[in-house]
Each structure stands twice: as C-alpha cells, then as structure tokens.
Design brief:
3-stranded mixed beta sheet, 14 strands, 7-stranded parallel beta sheet, 323 residues, alpha/beta
C-alpha cells in the first residue's frame, strides 16, 4: 500500500478506530470523518497524539463535511454505517439513509474530488438465509431478511456502478461479526452488561443454537489491507468474504463468557430459530478467495470472545456509554 492520506469514515467507531491506528503505525496520514453519534472520542486519543490524524466532525450527508474530509486523500475506507441490525424495523429509514444514501453521497463526492480508491465495509447479512455453507461470494442472493442487509447490498450496487461508470476501484468486504477491544455492540457486549447487573439469570434471544462465526478486529484489518495490496489495480471491483473457518453456537459463546465472569446464570430462552426478525440462524462464510492472497485469521473464536470480555471489564465506561 503506497503511503499517502486515507479518509476513514466512521473512524471513531470500533473497527474504524483500529484501522486508523494501523494506518498511522504503517506511516500513513489519516483523516477521520465521524458525526460521533455512536463513535467514541476516547478511541481516537492515540491517533490525535500522533499529530498525523485530522478529525472532521460531520455527517456523510453534509457536502461541506465531505469536501473537507476528502481534501488531499487518495484512498477512502468507508466504515461509517448504522450497524444496529436487530432494531432496524424500529427505524425503517435509518438503514436507508445512513447506509445507502450516505454511500451514494460519498461516491459522488469522491467522483467530484477525483479520489478513485475505496475500501467498503459490507456485511455477510447480504446473504440473508443462504442454503450453501460455508457461503461463497458468488452464492445466489436470497430474499433479503433485514433492512440492514438490504441497505448494504444497495450500497454495494452503487459502488459497483460507480466503478464501472466513473473509473473508481473498490474492494468490498462482507464481514462476519467482529470482536476485540473497543467492541461496543453485539451479543458479547449485551451478555456481559446483563450479567454484571444480574449474574443469576440471563435472557437469550432464540433457542441458543444459532451458529455464528466471529473474527478478531486485528485479523479483520489485516485481511482488508492484504486485499488492498494483493488485488490487481486494474480490477475495478473485488468482493471478499472476511470471516473465520471456525464457528460456534450462541450457547457455547455464552459458556465462555460465563466462565470468564465466574457466573452460572439460569438461561431463559425466548425460543425459535432466530433471535429477531432478520437474524440468520447460521452464518459461516467461505473465505478461500482471501486465503488465496495469503491471509488467514491468527486468533481462534474462543480467544476472541474471551479477550473481548476482558477488554469490556477493563473499560467499563464503554458498557455505561450505551445506557
């Protein structure tokens, strides 16, 4: 990856702040665009002290903020999004506005600024409830089951069209759930917070047998950068699954969390194969396309879950930040 200035949208978030730190460590200058609706300023403290990170507080739907953030950048890592999959139906426009519309605005601003290179954080949720496991990038796309997945798929389509129409080059990543320090939402976060409040009982959405794959944030970022380096420049759009060869049930991950916390709660199951509308009972992605570029995860899922629990215990302010 050539040295230069990179814009990271959502750079104050969990994944974004880790990417910012990695880029700075590799000698790159960084611009962060974030509206701090869910991002944390504390996550950017190491970056700010480096003197090579500029923060633009603003929204992707604000043209002025976009122009300021893109100034002098040669690469954009678009990580900003509404990631609250579970509550998507409570706010039907939020995924459309923050994921699809915001991506459209960014693409047009990039075109006007002459910025041609893009990394995009998509999601394995675009596969809905697939019939092929592990699920490859070229699997038939089923009916969409979540507004989040649908909005990310729409964003992927816009990106592909801009690449073919205006000469942009994009690397799209379909993630499993990411774990690690600064983790701020998801089942490990929810279980830890609930068990610290009430260690004797825990409510579990679904039947606990949902099978999911997870990936540590450092492995995730390494995979993104490997794809950026190894994909030929003349490829306009490349799509990569980014996940783990391992998977576990929700019940198993809860076992690990309880052991880490030293509790043995009664488990109360809501029942059913899905935790909520749009929750896929099984998420296992085929990542052989990225494996062929020399990338593989270095941390197992259990280690990732346990290290996330340890980090939350060491930074309890983050548990309180969600109220």
């Amino acid at each position: 990856m050539r040295n230069g200035k990179t814009l990271v949208t959502g750079g104050a978030g969990f994944l974004g702040s880790h990417l910012v730190d990695r880029l700075l460590a590799d000698g790159h200058d960084v611009v962060v665009l974030d509206n701090f609706s869910t991002g944390q300023r504390r996550f950017l403290e190491p970056a700010v002290t480096s003197g090579r990170c500029r923060i633009v507080e603003g929204d992707l739907l604000d043209p002025t903020s976009l122009r300021q953030a893109l100034d002098g950048c040669g690469l954009v890592a678009h990580l900003a999004a509404n990631a609250d999959v579970r509550r998507g139906l409570d706010h039907p426009r939020r995924d459309l506005e923050q994921n699809a519309f915001a991506t459209s605005a960014l693409l047009e601003a990039m075109r006007e600024a002459g910025v041609e290179r893009l990394l995009f954080a998509s999601t394995g949720a675009i596969y809905g409830e697939p019939t092929i496991f592990p699920t490859p990038e070229d699997a038939p796309l089923p009916i969409q089951t979540s507004l989040y997945g649908a909005s990310k798929l729409a964003a992927e389509g816009l990106i592909s069209a801009y690449c073919h129409g205006f000469g942009l080059r994009a690397r799209i990543f379909r993630f499993v759930s990411i774990l690690g320090p600064r983790y701020s939402h998801g089942h490990v976060f929810d279980f830890v917070r609930k068990l610290l409040i009430s260690p004797d009982a825990i409510d579990v959405l679904g039947d606990g047998r949902q099978r999911k794959s997870y990936l540590h944030v450092t492995d995730c970022i390494e995979g993104m950068l490997r794809a950026l380096e190894a994909t030929p420049e003349d490829v306009p759009v490349a799509v990569y699954n980014l996940g783990h060869t391992e998977s576990c049930t929700v019940d198993t991950s809860l076992d690990w969390i309880c052991q880490r916390l030293g509790v043995a709660p009664e488990r109360r199951y809501a029942g059913g194969a899905r935790g909520w509308i749009g929750d896929s009972p099984r998420v296992e992605l085929d990542c052989s396309r990225l494996h062929q570029l020399g990338w593989r995860p270095t941390r197992g899922i259990r280690e990732s879950v346990e290290s996330t629990v340890d980090s939350l215990l060491a930074h309890r302010w983050l548990l309180d930040a969600r109220g």
